[in-house]
Amino acid sequence: MTLTAPRTIDWDAIASELAGIEVIRDAAQVAKLSKDYYTYSPILRPLLDDKVADLVVRSVSEAEVLQVAQVCVRHRIPLTVRGAGTGNYGQCVPLEGGVILDLTQMQAVKWVKPGLACVEPGAKLVNIDKQTRELGWEIRMAPSTYRTATIGGFIGGGSGGIGSVTYGQLRDRGNLHAVRVVTMEDTPRIIELRGDEVQKVNHAYGTNGIITELEIPLAPAYPWAELIIAFDDFMTAARFGQALSDSDGITKKLVTVFAHPVPTYFAALRNSIPDGKHCAFVMVAEPSLEPFADLVKEFGGAVCYQKSAQEAGKGTLLMEFTWNHTTLHARSVDPTLTYLQTLFPADKHLTLVEHMYHHFGDEVMMHLEFLRTGGTAVPAALQLVRYSTPERLREIIQYHEEQGAFIANPHTYILEDGGRKTIDPVQLAFKEEIDPYGLLNPGKMRAWLERGSI
C-alpha cells in the first residue's frame, strides 16, 4: 500500500515550513498544475479528472528541493514532481493529493561541451538548443512539445520523438549520461547516477527520486529543411518512409507518414496538401536535399510543401504536426478521437502495417513515426482511433498484440502497464532505498504496489 496524506494535516503549518520558497495555494492554479494531457484518453478521464494536489511548491534551486523533500518526509506527505505538464498519461497527476513540486524555474544550462551539456530539469528543450546551437550542437531528440516541454519532464515521462529516427529512444544506452537526484529518506540526500545507473530514474514518472540536474548528449546541429511529400497510395508513402529511414547517407531528423484523412485535421496546412493524398512529413538536412529528391522521384512522390531551415525557424514548426501533436490537432476538430501507441516489428516490406491499414480502415487511422531500435529503423505508430466503447478499444489493442504488434498502452497511468509490461526489479530496489515511505508520485509504479507478492 502507498501512504496517503493525513486528512488532518495543517497546510498553513506546512506552508510556514516552506518559508522562502514559492508556495501556490490558489485553488484554480493548484488544479491546473495538477493536470496534464491525459484528456486524450477517454479511459483515463474519469479516473483522473477529480485528482488534485493540496498545494504547489515552485523551487528555484537544489537546496530548495531538499527542503521540500525534508518537509514532505517529516509529515509523510505525497510528493509529485512536475515539469511543463505536456505528458499524456497522467504522469504528473497526484493520485493521493499532497504536494506538487514544480521544477520549471530551475532552467539553467550550466555548461556545454562538444557533444555534451549539463542542464537543470526545468530548462525548456528549445532554450537548450538555442544555447548549444551557438557552438554547433543540438539536443538529439525532442517531443513535438519542443517549445514548451522541459528536459526533466521529457526524461521522466517521455520515450523518444523528433530525432529518434537517427538516435533511437531515451532508454538506449548513451542517450542520457548522468543525473543528480534528491531522495525522500528521513534525511534526504543528493545522489549522482552515471552511465547505466541512470535507468533507475529514466522514464520512471518521478517515482524514483527528484531530478535536479542532467548531463545529456548532443548531436551536430544541421540546417533542417522541412518538407511534405504527397502520395496517391498509403503503402507507397509508408515504404518511402522506410526507405528514407534506411538511407544512411541522407541526414534526417523526422520521418512521419500519414494516411488520408489524417492530414485534413491540420488546418494550417490545408492549402498545402492536395485533397485525398497520403503524406510524408520530413526534416532533412539541407546538404542532403539533392539525394533526397532522387528518393522522392524513385517512389513517385510530389513535394507539396518545402521550407528552408531559415524559413522553418519562423512560425509553426512542421514537427508540431507530428508525434503526439497529431492527436492534439485531430482532437481539436473531433474531440471524440483518441489514439494508440504501437511498435511494429522490423520488416522492410511493412506487411503488418499494410494488414492493419486495410483491416481497420478509417476506424484506426494510420500515423507512422519511424525510429531506430536495436540498430534498425522500424515504424512506430500513433494511430488515431474513432472511439466508441472501452470494450471496442480493448478489442483493437488485443488484435494488434495477437498479430505481433507491441502496444505501449496510452490508456493507463501505471508505469509498467503502459510501455514496460514487466516489473523492473532494479527500479524497485532503488525506490525502496531512496523513497522508503512510497511518497513519490504514489500509485503509479506497479512494482511498488505489488512488492509484497513479487
TrEMBL record:
<dbReference type="GO" id="GO:0008720">
    <property type="term" value="F:D-lactate dehydrogenase (NAD+) activity"/>
</dbReference>
<dbReference type="GO" id="GO:0071949">
    <property type="term" value="F:FAD binding"/>
</dbReference>
<dbReference type="InterPro" id="IPR006094">
    <property type="entry name" value="Oxid_FAD_bind_N"/>
</dbReference>
<keyword id="KW-0285">Flavoprotein</keyword>
<keyword id="KW-0274">FAD</keyword>
<dbReference type="GO" id="GO:1903457">
    <property type="term" value="P:lactate catabolic process"/>
</dbReference>
<dbReference type="InterPro" id="IPR016166">
    <property type="entry name" value="FAD-bd_PCMH"/>
</dbReference>
<protein>
    <submittedName>
        <fullName>FAD-binding oxidoreductase</fullName>
    </submittedName>
</protein>
<dbReference type="InterPro" id="IPR016164">
    <property type="entry name" value="FAD-linked_Oxase-like_C"/>
</dbReference>
<dbReference type="GO" id="GO:0004458">
    <property type="term" value="F:D-lactate dehydrogenase (cytochrome) activity"/>
</dbReference>
<dbReference type="Pfam" id="PF01565">
    <property type="entry name" value="FAD_binding_4"/>
</dbReference>
<feature type="domain" description="FAD-binding PCMH-type">
    <location>
        <begin position="49"/>
        <end position="221"/>
    </location>
</feature>
<dbReference type="InterPro" id="IPR016169">
    <property type="entry name" value="FAD-bd_PCMH_sub2"/>
</dbReference>
<dbReference type="InterPro" id="IPR036318">
    <property type="entry name" value="FAD-bd_PCMH-like_sf"/>
</dbReference>
